[in-house]
Fold:
Amino acid sequence: MAQRASPKEEEYFLLQEAERLRHLAAAREKQLQVAEREQRKTLHWMKCPKDGMDLVEVELSGIKVDKCFTCEGVFLDAGELEVVVKQESGFLGRLNRIFGKRA
Structure:
């Protein structure tokens, strides 16, 4: 005859199962967030953040910047502003000396 689990044992196994289900739900949520991020990236890749039109990559002082020929906006990728500022000796150069990151 099979021995019945004690209430404490039942509680333990229920808690274990609940924790397993929580982990599965969290993993699924993370997977959905990654999928949504990829979908948004695909939808917005090389689109102007102001008007949604296509961006064209143009070279400016040796740096490739993204230009919208509809609203005339110019957009920089991560790190490109720092490169432009370092090349600039005028107003932007002064801003960099005052507010730029210190090594």
Q: What stands out?
A: The two ends are 74 Å apart (CA to CA). Residues 1-45 form one domain. The longest strand covers residues 56-60. The helical segments are 7-44, 80-87, 91-99.
